[in-house]
Amino acid sequence: MLLARALRAAAALRPPLRHPPRRLLSSSSPRALLPPPAAAPALARSLWQLGGGGWRTALLRPRRGSAGGVSCGCGGLHTEGDKAFAQFLTDEIKEEKKIQKHKSLPKVSGGWELEVHGTEAKLVRKIAGERITVTFNINNSIPPSVDEETQEDQKPDEQEPDLTSTPNFVVEVIKDDTKQTLVLDCHYPEDEVGHEGEEESDIFTIREVSFQPTGESDWKDTNYTLNTDSLDWALYDHLMDFLADRGVDNTFADELIELSTALEHQEYIKFLEDLKSFVKCQ
Length: 282
Prior knowledge:
Layout: H1 2-13, H2 39-50, H3 55-60, E1 70-71, E2 77-78, H4 80-98, E3 113-117, E4 120-127, E5 130-137, H5 148-153, E6 169-175, E7 180-187, E8 205-213, E9 225-227, H6 233-244, H7 250-280
Antiparallel strand pairs: 1-2, 3-4, 4-5, 5-6, 6-7, 7-8, 8-9
């Protein structure tokens, strides 16, 4: 009896239980407490539209006036350094055009026809059943600058020497109805050294001579190549006379330098213009 009475007394003192939260989800609960079912998809769609198909792109795009620069319609970054770089290129292009000697490429005397493909140029001449081609590329054709001692000796009011392009060039002699082409690899030596007793030295030299299959663009390394470093002088002189008889002599070499220098300067200005457009995103 005492135990039952104690239990009833404890039950009378216990506070009434609150309604569980799930009763709010019943049909009689206020609908305002429930979130609209279409809210989440609408939010996701608005973020997608904000980014033009990818909202992460819009969030990661630099804002105007930020320290990292601003972007334009091209999607590229534009900084104050880019602006100064573009202005420098504008001034540089103007100066280079002022000192440009040839607005169009000069011609080479002797009936040579010129073909230009970017930085590569080819001169073609046909005489008496033979086709002579001279090919050169103006890339890396500017000799290194003068040494520091020469620069120190130069006076402040003296103008810097003009840059001259002296490219290596390849002469190909093709005879009609033959399957072989005589190939002579020529270059301009840094120090022009003539033969003893000669009144005039050659401004270019033959470095290598070989035969290659006619009509094939890829030359075979298995074909014998004659290096002229250890060649008999008499044979070398005959090779030089062979070229001179076909119009490849000192006069031609001088005009080739003028043509190559004009082409190199033209391509340099074009490169500066392309670089300016790239920096400005035009």
